[in-house]
Amino acid sequence: MNRFCFILFFTNILNAQVNGVVLDSVSKEPIVYANVILKSEQIGVATNFKGAFLINNKNSLNSDTLMASYVGYKTQKKVINHTKKDSIYTFFLKEDLQLLNEVLIKSSKKLSKGTYKIKSKGKKLIGHNIKYNEEVIKLVNNDKNTSGKLLNVTFYFRNYESDYGQKLPVHYRLNFYYVDSISKKPKDLVLLESDIIIKPEDKNKKHPFEVDLKNYNIKFPKEGLYIGLQSINPSLTQPKAGAFYVITPMLLESYVKKASTYYRTLGGETFANMKGIKKNYYRDLIIDVELKYYEN
Rounded to the nearest 10 degrees, how much is the dihedral formed by the CA atoms of 127, 232, 72, 266? Predict the structure, then answer.
């Protein structure tokens, strides 16, 4: 009997679900698309339009740390206990006024040298089936010997046309990362005044989605910039446990011989490069960028 109770107890821990809600501390309104991360497992999700979240935790200690964050707010942590059943964790995030003041980027007073476009060189386009709460970023190199400002960025999408698997909708959060001067890998997240969420249409053919960035004053350094998307579940519908699912519209990518595109799950500490099916090739996210360059 004791052995049975232990097995049942252990099974409950392994299959624990962590759920709750993220709210504004003043208005008590839900914070939509806030990131919630389970620290020990390095997994996370984004809140839905009700501010609610649900994390399926298959492998964890009895206690853990849960973190909630959103741009313009102070990150909040909670120590949680997986042995407690039916626990709902509520976060009341407070605005970080000091952080907001730091990221208010003033318009550059440098003289403009005009605009310049950087286009992806990949020709064969294929759909990239990323899952919810994954992030895909690409290094956009700066081939001009001067800094600039991002004007717009264009991603390419297409509908998932097969009947195989569960089809689910998706929104994306646009993220930017500075380039590490030594490793050339993604470094610090570029802080913005507000989140940039894109909602591409689910069309039956390849289509571009241009994001206007003129009002964000995002600098484009000489070292280049990592640009990418985090996939977000916009609905209350969850993927069926253990079943194959596809989020659509799908991001389009190509193949290249030099790695420049990386991915990680939300909560993961490091990015990994995306190896392609073809030997000695890497998967490459299709991104077009328009910039305004300045005099040195």
Answer: -80
The enclosing H or E element of 171 equals: strand 171-179
Residues 6+ apart with CB under 8 A from 38: 18, 44, 55, 57, 60, 64, 65, 66, 267
- Residue 144 resides in a domain: yes
Q: Is residue 103 part of a domain?
A: no
Residue pLDDT, tens place only, 149-201: 999 999 999 888 777 888 899 999 999 999 998 888 898 888 887 889 999 88
Which domain does 70 fall in, by range?
A: 2-98
Fill in the amino acid letter for 197: I
User: Residue 140: beta bridge partners?
Assistant: 225
CA distance 61 to 163: 39
Decide if 84 is inside a domain.
yes
Tokens 């509520």 found at = 90
Residue 239: DSSP 8-state: P
φ and ψ of 77, to 5 deg: -120, 150
Structural domain ending residue among the three candidates 33, 68, 98: 98
Burial level of 3, CB count in 10 A (0-12/13-18/19+)? exposed
Q: Specify the 3-state DSSP secondary structure of 222.
A: coil
This prediction has a pTM of: 0.82
Q: At 28, which CATH number?
A: 2.60.40.1120
53 belongs to a structural domain: yes
